[in-house]
Amino acid sequence: MGFCDECPDGEGIFAGKRALVVGGSGGIGKAVALGLAKRGAAVIITGGNSPERLENTLEEIGNESSMVEKRHSGFLCKIGLSDEGLSPEEAAAFILGKMPSPDILVISWGPFNKIALQETTSENWRFLVESNLIFPGILTSLVLCDMVRRGWGRILLFGGTGTAEFRGFSDTVAYSTAKTALGTLAKSVAKTAGKAGVCCNVVCPGLTATEYTTPSELAWYNKKYAGRKILTAEEIAYCALEILQSANINGAIIPVDSGLWV
Question: Structurally, what CATH architecture does the domain formed by 18-253 represent?
């Protein structure tokens, strides 16, 4: 099936499907959520700590939606080291306790920390691995049974820049190790649930400019891209949506980085 915004009958290609986008209130997750709504899905998003950003995004999703009856919603869920932060187990239970089991799961969230390997503390390791690998793993396990039972499901995980294959890193080791391991998770889902119509893939974006990108980060991106166009969240989302609608892409680890290494 080729990429399209809508089916010939005017209903979105994801009509009747319920999509959960973790990290959907901003950045790449927001762009994916908007695309899912445009293509007919009922979208539920989670955000981290900004009620205003969450509400603004939900309004945009409603405006983009192809559904006659808008059934989009969202809520905040803090995960991590802060006093209000939930553990991976608590966060997964909290999220799924607020909604029916999703047909589509997109995890476009994961804290980033740039620190030399020899300076990475046990707390850094625990937080980054729990957030970027254990939390997606738990959430994937919890939604998988219902997807198998329904005979259809889509799971899309977001890796990190340069984590589409095994390689070494100098100052993002804990983060990149966890993100690289998502490939094993996706291939395992494809192996165990592919025959039941469930697809799970990983997208590894290149350096992408979003509303979260700081001026210093943007300057570094420009230096690395050496005059070439920096990727946008919408460009990453376009590829993500193509993957989500395909039944023929399963267990894949896909770099969307213009072929540029960092």
Answer: 3-Layer(aba) Sandwich (3.40)
